[in-house]
Amino acid sequence: MTEQELIDTLLLVLVAGHETTVKLIGNAVHALLTHPEQLELVRAGELSWNDVIEETLRWAPSVANLPLRFAVEDIEIPGGPTIRKGEAILPSFAATGRDPQQHGDTAEQYEARRPSAEHLSFGHGVHRCLGVPLARMEAAVALQALFDRFPDMELALPAESLAPAGGFIVGGLKSIPMRLTKG
Q1: How far, in Å, CA of 183 to CA of 79, rounded?
Q2: How far is CA 116 from CA 56, 97, 139, in A?
Q3: CA distance 14 to 17
Q4: Residues 6+ apart with CB under 8 A from 114
Q5: How far is it, in rounded angstroms, from Cα 179 to Cα 54?
Q6: Do 174 and 164 touch, CB atoms closer than 8 A?
Q7: CB 153 within 8 Å of CB 183
Q8: CA–CA distance, 95 with 146 (Å, rounded to integer)
Q9: Residue 22 DSSP SS3
Q10: Residue 70 forms beta bridges with which residues?
Q11: What gap in Å lies between CA 161 and CA 173, rounded to an integer?
C-alpha cells in the first residue's frame, strides 16, 4: 500500500467502526424502549445483552445496504434471473434480517428470545468486518451501563415520530430524544 492508501484505510476503519457501533447502540436502545417486555427479560436475567445485540443486528442493522459489490462469476438465482459476471450487486442487510423464509412468520418483529438471530450485519467471508468482537463488546458494555445508570429512561417523543437517519447505507435513527432520571 502507498502511504496515502494506508492513511485512507485507517480513516475508513475509524469512521466505519465508530458510526456503525453508535447506530447499533442507538438501535438497541430504541428497540428496548419500544419493546419494554424485552427489557424486563434482560433485567430479570432471562436474556443477555448479547441476545439483545444479535437480535438488534438482525432486526435493525447498522448498515442497511452496502453498494459497490460486483459479481465475480455468473450467479444463477433459482426461479429468478442470472446475475452476470461484472454486474453490480446491492446487498441489503436490512432485507435479509426480515426474511420470513429465514426467520419465520415473525421476522418483522423484535424478539430477543428468537432461537436463531443469524444475520449478515457484519458481512460475510472476505468482506466480514474486522471489528466484530470490538463492536459486540462496546455495545454490551454501553447498553448495560446506560440501562443500569438510567433504569427509568424513556423516549421523550412518541416512537412513530422518530426520524430515520436518512441516506442509503446507514440504518438507524437521526436522533433518539430521551428523558433520563438517575436511578
Answers
A1: 56
A2: 12, 11, 19
A3: 5
A4: 55, 58, 103, 106
A5: 26
A6: yes
A7: no
A8: 29
A9: helix
A10: 88
A11: 11
Give CA–CA dist 72/87, Å, rounded: 8
Question: 129-132 long-range contacts, Cβ below 8 Å, gap at least 24?
Answer: 129/20, 130/13, 131/13, 131/17, 131/21
Q: Report the CATH number that the domain containing residue 97 is assigned in CATH.
A: 1.10.630.10
Residue the block writes with cell 492508501: 5
For cell 447506530, the residue is: 23
Task: With a cut of 70, list the residues of the chain below it in pLDDT.
Answer: 117, 183
Length of the chain: 183
How many domains are contained in the chain? 1
> Alpha carbon of 97 to those of 45, 82, 109, 157, 177: distances in Å?
25, 23, 10, 27, 26
**Residues linked to residue 89 through DSSP beta bridges, in sequence order:** 69
Which residue carries 467471508 as its cell?
A: 125
38, 143 in Cβ contact below 8 A? Answer: no
What's the grid cell of residue 84?
A: 452476470
Tens digits of residue pLDDT in 157-175: 999 999 998 888 888 899 9
Query: Can you give the residue range of the structural domain that contains 31?
Result: 3-179
Q: Is the backbone of residue 27 left (phi > 0), alpha (psi -120 to 50) or beta? A: alpha
Kindly report, residue by residue over 114-140, the tens digit of the pLDDT: 887 678 888 788 878 878 888 999 999
